[in-house]
Records
---
Amino acid sequence: MGRLIEKWFGFSQIREELEARIGELENENTELLREREYLAAETSELKDANNQLRQKNDKLFITKDNLTKANTELYRERNDLAREKENLNNQLNASQKQVKELEQSQQVLKNEKAELSKEKENLTKANTDLKTENDRLNHQVIALNNEQGSLKQERARLQE
């Protein structure tokens, strides 16, 4: 009789509609639960991926810091090498200047040596000429001494 009353008062149609709606809601709820599980799994995967990316990012920051330190060290070394190069260039320039001065000094000495050699040659020639003249004069002195001796003898003979 309960169904009869439901039919007369239209409750059966409402009940059917409500049962249909409940079925739809249960299906929708099941679908939402599946979607929630899927999203939970996807969220977990995304969290894992995010953690991995954070770890990689941390490693990259460490690598970046190390590279920055290495780069700073390389800049310092480059500056040190530039200073050393400048010092070596200054030393090279000073050495080249000294070499030029020594070459000029050597040329002056060669010129002086050539002049002294000429002067020595001229003095040697003059010395030879003087020796020859001295020998000639010595012969003349000997001849004059002999003549003087002869003249003294002749004078002594004449005075006798």
---
Amino acid sequence: MFATVGGGCFWCTEAVFLRAKGVIRVRSGYAGGKTKNPSYRQVVSGKTGHAEVVRIEYDPTMISLRDIFDLHLLSHDPTQKDRQGADIGSQYRSIIFYETEEERNVALEAIQQAQNKFNSQKLFGIFPRRAEIMTEVKKLDEFFEAETYHQDYYNKNPNQPYSIINIVPKLQSFEVRQALGRLESRDGM
């Protein structure tokens, strides 16, 4: 089975999903735009309509599509429009792609539950948090695999400044670690 999601730089998203039990393979790439076989330079120009995404191959007996979408929504800030931190532009938008209506419904349910969680949170324990999830849900037309140097980026470049500043904190995030642990403990391990 496959799932395709985007939420900021694909290096970060890839690093998270490579650590999820039941994920077989993760490929960084581009989807959601009009340009056929885009290059990284074309996508980061913001003119192709594509988002940086990852295509996740997973074993549904070990991890569900809903688990993948929940982890995706935890692993980035889905309330930011067309950006994640310092990565700005529509190519960094939060997006979930679906191939069937069932997948679309699972995505919408995951987003609604995440929105309910955001709505129940309070800043400083007092003020209601008002943050709308901006994650798009879109039919996948085509996935274009990114250049080889983008694949398995963090594992090949753990000491690069981008990895240290952006990927390591994401992997150390309490919510992401908790979600990854939940997924692992479902097997009784």
---
Amino acid sequence: MHTNTAIDKLSEAKDNYGIWKLRFFDLLQFTNKTGFIDGTLPKPDPSSPYYEPWKQCNAIVLHWLSNTVTDTLQNHVLQAETVHKAWEDLRRIFVPCIDFKIYELRQRLATLRQGGDSVAEYFGKLSKAWLELKAYDPVQECKCGGCDCESEKRATEAREKEQRYAFLMGLNKEFDYVKMKVMHKKIPPSVYQAYEMVVYSEAMMKWKMGGRI
């Protein structure tokens, strides 16, 4: 697994912890090793038959982790006995208070406006903040075990609705008409479908005005 080429290195200078966390977690899902970082695969007793396989996998994931951080952060990984410990140590460096980070991201989203940006530039800023928020405040998975409560589905739909509203509210006034079209759809469009509608409207405006909005 060539993690050093698949993911940008975590760096204090880049402030990229949220994106890095999501991408590294996604990479581990391919190898079914997410339990080593989220703590759901704790270290077995040395007498357990699972101890040696766990020890080997833990060392492998620690190696992958060390390859995705800068040299200055590698000591925090190499000194940790378990992947979970290294993962939490890095989290404390970049996000000492998760609730404050969630507040900070939600405040950014609440005040983000298109202004002089194109629709694509504005949507890109929103998407980056949404991706970071997903890292710290993900939609909770249903753990009922085969139930039909649909709690996860409803939570996902609520998050999607929240994103659609945020996108529309921050658009400039010239998009009021297309915003109303989006809001009056019988079947609410996804945020990406709403984005496509607004981008099309922007392109038509540019065409009518000879390339200027």
---
Amino acid sequence: MINGDVSLILDEIIRDKNFEKPHLIVIDPPRGGLSLEAVENILKILPKNILYISCNPKTQARDIKIMTEYGYQLKILHPIDQFAQTFHIENIAVLEEALDYMKTYYRGWLSSKLLL
């Protein structure tokens, strides 16, 4: 398990030639969602599954849209009302990688399209 600021940790992981593709990444960004750099780095390491917890459905939808454009499928989206009698909710989303034949396509396409 690796814990920390996604924008700092993923840069280091991407450079590590011995790093194995993770089965699961759990992300819980602040209200502003993930930075574009963070989304790009998550997509570069191609995790099998992404568990995305969010307190802002709007930024979560924005980030999930990008992830689905790069080969992930939204499998579960579940709102949780942790703060009764307020408008605040937490969303839990589970994304999984696309079919195997698509992964090869997306890996090549991703490396040519991302802004780095």
